[in-house]
Amino acid sequence: MQTRELHPGAVHERVVQAVDEAAGYHAIIAIHSTKLGPAVGGTRVWPYASFDEALTDALRLSRGMSYKAAVAGLPFGGGKSVIIGDSRRISREAVFRAHGRFINQFKGQYMTGEDVGTTPADMELVRRETPYVAGLATTSGDPSPFTARGVFRAMLAAVLHRWGSEKLAGRTVAIQGCGNVGYNLARELQKAGTKLIVADIDAARAARVAGELEASPVTPDEIFDADAEIFAPCALGGVLNDETIPRLRAAIICGAANNQLAEDRHANAIEVRGILYVPDYVANAGGLINGAQELSRAPLETKAAIEAIYDTTLKILTIASSQKITPAQAADRLAEERLGSR
Annotated catalytic, 80? Predict the structure, then answer.
């Protein structure tokens, strides 16, 4: 395996590229911060169009993990792995064992878990080469239900802040992305009595949610125009941008996807439209909180901490309102205070 240090800027502590041609492995690990503890962040497998695109994703995701852990009050920093490839075509054992060897070189400075394109079974393969992995099928397992529960709790807080009551029954939620998290969020919302509109690039996923939970499926492009009071992005990042924000009809945005804003300035564009935005790393911390129990030496009350995402969301929305800043700015300030960078 060949590795090389990358130096994309002073914001990140370490960024390293690794290549193992025999295994078909090409990856980047980005460590944003270890000020609060070892960096944690999932492993994403994606067919990036270029190395620069993969690097940008790793940098943004790792920063988001630092802020997510800080706001959630966890004793961890932020990192991320991205593996360049198609998760449907890679040689899983070769790739994930190579990944484990790469992670082991960080000697506990970075620990990983499941993310887009990976499964608990993949983490078992990583575990054969390094102890610095969570989300195993035999331990904390699939983080998706915990992530979805946190998003649901954040959504309740946003509804209360916006309309003075956390009642969701009768309201319509448009979910973009019906993977593991989107599916579990849809289940939570259906139990709460909401009407669901769903979309996914994989039509079979949207059809599953539609069939099981009485949701109305639309195309991936139509979801932005959906007649819904709440928009829940649960797919990939960058979906809130110059083209999509003017199309939204929702009063609240609250979802599980990381890096929903294409650029920081889009938080202001959302604010100008009068839409209440719950920062992604505040809403989607449930999976990290669940995995932290496995990684932390100190006991964590996982369920209580996930439920407390409701209180954290209310706090951030209240700060934003009182200080006349965007919720994204309020969340960043809270994270930066805990990271000691303000």
Answer: yes
